[in-house]
Amino acid sequence: MEILKDDCHVLIITFPGQGNINPCIQFSKRLVKLGVNVTFSTSLTAFNRITNLPTIEGLTFAPFSDGFDGNFKGSMNNFHEFNNSFRTHGSEFMINLVKTRAKEGNPFKRIIYTTLTGWVGLLATSINVPSTFLWIQPATVLDIYYYFFNGYEDTIKNFPKDKFLELRGLPLLSPRDLPSFVFADSNDWTLLSMKDHVELMDSEINQRVLVNTFDALEPDALSVLKNVNMVGIGPLIPSAFLDGNDSSDTSFGADMRQDSRDYIEWLDSKAKESVIYIAFGSYSMIPNQLMEEIAQGLVLCKRPFLWVIREGQNGEKPFEKLSCKEELEELGKTVSWCSQVEVLQHPSLACFLTHCGWNSTIESLASGVPVVACPLWTDQLCNAKLIQDVWKTGVRVNANDEGVIERNEFERCIEIVVGDGEKGKELRKNAKKWRNLAKDSMKEDGSSNVNLKAYVHEVLLGE
């Protein structure tokens, strides 16, 4: 670890979702190891749920109220209300914090902001503080948004469902492979957030954008935008799961509840590469019909499984509503939370049935676990395309003509991934290849490690 530089202090502000917080805390840890003091900030909606914040010299936390502080009860359709409140309260907090630090003679060298917080970059510009954008989704998705807001909006919105869109530097994409926000209303807050990001990228020639990916994973997507310097610094997961050198760094950033550990004991009792792991992230509530079809598919497979099923907003227990609950209890185990990276690293894992959020996707890649891809929305659709057709580490489930993914489809895809056929063998071989490349990227001379060091020395330290 480098000696902390007294004159190099950065402020990191992130959206208060676990999918944002986890990679940002890992990023913060890596900056500290390179000698950078970090103040990590997001709203109390996130901080009120965190049970194990890391205690590291050089890393401090500065939570602020977003007006709801974990008590927002609206649906995803009303989430713009939360975002507006988060932005208003966060702007006031950020200005006051920056002014206070400057008066104390210890100003922030730079503000780093993440996906969905473009307002931070705009505000930083208005108060003359340099900023850097940390994109926590794949470079391919950022490229799509960049094209969308630079002349391709009508083409993308009106593209035929049975055709493939050609965008320079990207794989052929059908409408079902595009992030769902590009089809949202032009006034949707998420789409406007992406527009803020693109406008900020366009406002500075050859701006350096940090991306939670690595060079070997997306070489074309990282380099295709000529006026934007996209730099792969990922995978942003705990170093213990990449190099094994720091056994204390095993928690994935911000665990949202205490770990009971019984699921690890259960996994320990299972044969090597035998267990199906199912998890759909921190945000997505799985529709009842989809849950039932997944459950029936697991019954058809007759394989052991570990399934993360979160309670509903009002304490509902979706597992209790399944018609095949008794059969499932004989086959596998359900939990309300688990340490996902730890589970993915377990030798009993055979495959991962996932919504393809980027954290889950890059964790599966870094763990060498093949995937059954069941994307629901946002970047997940594009991530599933990359998994199946570019990296070839999994298969994507297909819906029927009514838009329903049936139980037999889940059984089919699981059996392809874990079965003894040539396709399954190829997927498992590719998964191990990408695991090794992910680990290589984070070695001392690996691309992501070298890229991050260059950013720190050239941008933050000005050497």
UniProtKB/TrEMBL annotation:
Its EC number is 2.4.1.-. PROSITE patterns: UDPGT. Keywords: Glycosyltransferase, Transferase. InterPro entries: UDP_glucos_trans, UDP_glycos_trans_CS. Signal peptide: none annotated. Transmembrane segments: none annotated. SUPFAM superfamilies: UDP-Glycosyltransferase/glycogen phosphorylase. It holds the Pfam family UDPGT. GO terms for molecular function: quercetin 3-O-glucosyltransferase activity; quercetin 7-O-glucosyltransferase activity. Coiled coil: none annotated. PANTHER family: GLUCOSYL/GLUCURONOSYL TRANSFERASES, GLYCOSYLTRANSFERASE. Belongs to the UDP-glycosyltransferase family. This is Glycosyltransferase. The gene is UGT75C1_2.
